[in-house]
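Our collaborator T.R. sent over the components below with a one-line note: 'Predict the complex.' Nothing else. No constraints on interfaces, no templates requested, no preferences about which chain binds where. So this is a plain run: every listed entity goes in together, and whatever single assembly comes back becomes the starting point for the next discussion.
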Amino acid sequence: MTFSSACFNICVSLEYVNRVEPTTDQIMRNKNVKRPAVGILMGSDSDWPTMKEAADACAEFGISTEVNVISAHRAPHDLERYASGAHTRGLCVLIAGAGGAAHLPGVTAALTPLPVIGVPIAGKFIKGWDALLSIVQMPSGVPVATVAIGGARNAGLLAVQILAVGDSALQKKYLAFKERLAEQSRAKNRNLAL
Ligand code: RP5
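Returned assembly:
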């Protein structure tokens, strides 16, 4: 049994003990994806052009995602319901992107035992520095793995790496990906025109 499937099975078992029923279309919408391992959250639909890169990175490795807009400020009770039940629904990693005051990743991390990856989104006025500092400065005991401003692709890749820890087939795919990266870098060196 792979780590991902073990995680799913454990989570599904828990679901029967502690089922969280969806209460709105928004918080439990599941893009018709079966058994998503990664939950992608964002504070607004305006974050999607950035956050799509996290979903795309997961898809490259065959990892299913579910995507929801849940604002920590505008819909705090929806966030509490989603985050506190995420591990009981088979999710293994959460990625949360937000701009501005950007409390979404931190509050999500406060409510879930799952690893949370935070993506600072560049806003109109401060170019994402506000979100970066909000997300990265978590108090001891509540970690959020923060990627670069707009670094949603890395958030997706990190989620894949977390899932690959106990899944040798996925880890093999990841090693092949790293080898392709190295080859692309070598090509840049070969083609360097000084
Ligand atoms: C944050 O406020 C969201 O994550 C988004 O980055 C930003 C702006 O939201 P909208 O005004 O576009 O809905 O909560």
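Summary for T.R.: Residues 31 and 47 are 17 Å apart (CA to CA).
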